[in-house]
Amino acid sequence: MNSNLLSPWNWNLYVITDEHLYKGRTHQEIAEAAIRGGAEVIQLRDKTASGKYLYETGQNIRHLTHRAEVIFIVNDRVDVALAVDADGAHVGAKDIPWKAARRLLPSSKLLGGSARNLAEALEAESGGADYVGVGPIYEARNTKPDAGIPKGLELLTRVKERLKIPIIAIGGINEANVAEVIAAGADAIAVISAIVTADDMVDATRRLHERILEAKAKRT
What we know:
Layout: E1 13-16, H1 27-37, E2 41-44, H2 51-68, E3 71-75, H3 78-83, E4 88-91, H4 98-104, E5 110-115, H5 118-126, E6 131-134, H6 152-162, E7 167-170, H7 178-183, E8 188-191, H8 193-196, H9 201-219
Parallel strand pairs: 1-2, 1-8, 2-3, 3-4, 4-5, 5-6, 6-7, 7-8
């Protein structure tokens, strides 16, 4: 493992898998393409799959991420994250409480949280989260029906001012708007549809990663 990536402060692009968004593309295929394109983090996300399926799929992705020395996170299922020796788990405000998840995870494992407002972001931080995903910044209900109304860059800026942990922006982010999201304070970008629905997932990942680095360079 690249030890630098164990700190979310060093992340740029965080790709979340979704088998239901583009027929025929598996979690493993999405993960492999994102890794080849330069993503530093892969999250396995599937709200409907069985524990057995998540475990088997997680094992396969763990092998890919281990070889490539990138971070592997499992969404919601702390048990699956532990079983496949993922680098961490990601839970939302309606999932297992962050403090409980933090107790279950060894100190060497990462805990991520999702926040749709400042209160949730602060709760995630106080609950032991190592980073917080904030959004949706733009419209994202085609990917996440429960994402809610877009929050815009204002929420991102408010959260950045208050939290001391890295902020990962999510929700409707793509090549066209990623620069303004980074300028507003995002430490990294999380995407689903921008990669999963692309004709060439490797190239889409590479281009988006480049845009993020360019935007960060202008910010410093």
